[in-house]
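Researcher: Here's my situation. A collaborator sent me these components and asked whether they could plausibly form a single complex. I don't have experimental data yet, so a predicted model of the whole assembly would be a useful starting point for our discussion.
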Amino acid sequence: MKNSRRNFLKIAGISALGFGVEPVFDAFAVSEGQEEIRRNKNALTGKRWGMVVDTRKIHSSHDLEPMIEACHSIHNVPKIPNENHEIKWIWEEEFEHVFPNKGNEYLDERNKQLPFIVLCNHCENPPCVRVCPTKATFKREDGIVMMDFHRCIGCRFCMAGCPYGSRSFNFRDPRDFLSNDETDPLFPTRMKGVVEKCNFCAERLAVGKMPACVEASHGILAFGDLNDSDSNVRKLLKSNYTIRRKQSLGTGPSVYYIV
Amino acid sequence: MNDKKWIITGLVIFVMIVIFPFLPNFGKAVPVPEPELTPEAKAAGTCVLPKAEMKAGHMKILDLWRDSVVRKGKRTYVNDSGKEFNMSLSSGEKSCIGCHSNKAEFCDRCHDYASVRPYCWDCHNEPKEKKL
């Protein structure tokens, strides 16, 4: 068949029509499948997760140990003997270190010797997120300041940025300090050269469970949505005087302490 | 100019040195390994996506899933036929490793062949190996 201008135009016209209807077919094709990525059905959701620590219920380190143990065991946090290499997500600290700008010269006896529990404050305005060059640390929509360990390059800017010392750096391979039967298979370990910290048990919230420390706390810790005026934490905040750590820095910590 | 024998000997030695790493496998192509399926995986019949797509694109899926889980908190994947999966490499029953619990035969065999060294297992916990 000899190609004529007439034939060429016909073919061009039909092709144009074909491309024109293709998106329509595509739309139908997509609507047939039901591929979807979504939250778990029983996931706990909030606008701004927060925690209230009722220090009136703490009597000694003995009350705090189960929380620390619960957290560190499910998150495969190694116990490294050398203090300089220590990894901690939640730990105990004394008043003058928890609230350095509230340290009166003559502090009451109880608070002076009481062990406080400290963890990442999941700040409203987190400096660690601001300084992270790779966006490995970021703030989720529900207020949790999370880390994507895959992305962390170990620059430690976040550790310099965090005014609470909530972050630990893996100077050593954590697996050297975790025996096989100690390791919880449900949570990954980290590798050398990565920073880590508390994640408010994002992996547990996703399956409808409360954070591990809260479950193990016998009522010392309360966890809930600070944005919801009917939540348990808001009720506690309404009826008790609370303080937050280094509030004047403007980071907006989400962990409150009833003292 | 009577160095011919030296030059030729030198050349032969040189060529031998260059090709000696290839000699042991010369003419024998190593067969492409096939990943082995666990009974669970066989029973399920199809993975998250059809086999061809998984073969070609599992790394992209893992990458997308990782972002979805870590950043958006969306951890459930529903495939075209309405089946639900836990979007996780190594945690629990409905994760990748929950079904493909034979890492050595399923993952490593092909990765070794293709000389790919993903760093998944530097952090994620390897499944307790089951004997097939």
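Model: Some features of this prediction you could bring to your collaborator: The CA atoms of residues 73 and 155 of chain A lie 26 Å apart. The interface with chain B takes residues 33-41, 43, 138, 140-142, 146, 148-150, 183-191, 202-203, 205-206 of chain A (CB under 8 Å).
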